[in-house]
Amino acid sequence: MKHFYLLLYIAALLFFSACGSKQPERSGTRTSRNMMKQYNLEVLTLDKRFYESIPSGSGLEFYNDVYYLMGDDSPYLYELDGNFKLVQQYALFDTAAFGSGRIPKSLKPDLECMARFTYGRDEYLLLLGSGASAERNRGFLVNLTDNMQVREVDLSRLYLFLKKVLKIEGEGLLNVEGLAMDANYTYLMQRSFGARSNVLFRFETDDFIDYFFLDARLPVVAVYYFNLPQLQYYHAGFSGAYALDGRLFFTASVEATTNAIDDAQVLGSYIGMIDLGSLPYATDPVHPASVPIIKLSNPDGSAYLGKAESLVLGKVAGAGEYRVIVVSDDDAGHTELLELQLSVQSLQQEN
Predict the structure, then answer these.
(1) pTM assigned to the model
(2) Judging by DSSP bridges, how do beta strands 221-227 and 289-290 pair with one another?
(3) DSSP 3-state assignment of 260?
(4) What is the DSSP letter of 284?
(5) Which residue has the higher pLDDT, 23 or 139?
(6) For 349, which of 43, 68, 97, 264 is 20 to 30 Å away at the CA?
(7) Distances in whole angstroms, Cα of residue 67 to Cα of each of 89, 90, 256, 261, 282
(8) Would you state the pLDDT for residue 169?
(9) Model confidence over 111-142: pLDDT tens digits?
(10) Which DSSP string do the residues of 51-96 spell out, in sequence order?
(11) How far apart are CA 221 and CA 214, in angstroms?
């Protein structure tokens, strides 16, 4: 009988020990996030260019030795040559509200992101409003091949869909700030405010384009969540995107505001990178993924306090070396371009 009670006691100890053991963490928590590839970023600001006559730069693209630049309170698309000299501007919509040099906040479509893509034999630019209000549910297609013809598109249905995906209602909560496209996928970036995560939407590029050209059904979307640094009490938010080499490069900035409409003091700007092969580890909204990111500075090394809004990249000699042009907005009706040298070095993954 003593042996029976001893065996029963040992069995009970084993049972409660097993019940109290730590269970594997579910996907999206610390274990899976640590599986993301690790990188080190180094950035050097080489030059700055100031444009007094181009208001509130917000989007930038490069094609055929030309830079195309837009502002969030301007009705024009600006063309710069390879030396960044303004050579032409094209009206996207009625310019009547531009009399003072900036469209009033209540009227502007708030064009915040732009990307180039190919459709048939033609090259296009797609410009998107932020979606933060009804007036900002406007977008524009510009045919670069056919004499810069412009067609306006209504983003209301697409943006209502995105708000439902994010489970948000009302104005000022959706804030689309980044757009990048490659042959396979299209990426939209939702800028965070308050304690919310920054969100990346991914669509099949063919389906995304068909939605605009063929009035097709809404494209299927995948959603990813990211955590960016904070300065003082405010988190950095996505502000622009560019896809290259299986990576999504982005700009981000920190404003002393908790909503998507009001301007506020800029506390700093960043450039960062998302390894697109690591997206499966960024699907948990409760535990958003962290990514490599670095704060921007002036050529003299001091902190850069402009609001970085978008970027384009080109590869240079050396693995992981890029030339980067960033467009920036000073919220006072002017635009800056920053020329950067970016180095991306892969680190051995830590367990």
Answers:
(1) 0.88
(2) parallel
(3) coil
(4) -
(5) 139
(6) 43
(7) 12, 13, 31, 27, 32
(8) 80
(9) 999 999 999 999 999 999 999 999 999 999 99
(10) ETTS-SEEEEEEETTEEEEEETT-SEEEEE-TT--EEEEEE-S--G
(11) 18
